[in-house]
Amino acid sequence: MKLAEYKKIGRIGYIKLHRPELDLQAVRNLIDSFKQSMANKDICVVFTSSRENFAVGEDLKYAYELITNPEKQSQAYDEVSNFQELTSLMREHPGIIIVGYRGWVIGGGFELTLFCDFRIAASNTKIWLPELDVGMFFSNASTKALAWLIGASKAKELMILGKQIDAKKALEYGIVNKICEPNELDKECRKMAKRIVQKSPFALTLAKRLINAGPEITFDEAMYREMRAMIACGNTEEARLRIETFLNKSKSKN
Question: What is this structure's pTM?
Answer without folding.
Answer: 0.91
